[in-house]
Design goal:
88 residues, mainly alpha, 2 domains, two-stranded antiparallel sheet, 2 strands, 7% strand
Amino acid sequence: MSTFAATTVLAAATYGDFLVGLVPVAVFALVIVTAGYLTRCWLFPFTTCHHSDRYAWRCRRCQGTGLRLRAGRRLINHLTDARHRYHR
């Protein structure tokens, strides 16, 4: 009976160790995905606007061009502008 109890405690500790090892992998994957998205935003800043096809009037998101700026590119532009304002 005591062997069964000891095995159960060790199994619970093993799951905790697995999660501790999984956190750095998840953080690393998040960093890689974010860097890839920001690189894509830097190389291809525009995406298609899905609202301009539905309406006959000019879309306020794309001003009728059919292209709009990606959210990541807006972040890059904001950080660049802030850096330029700070270094004047």
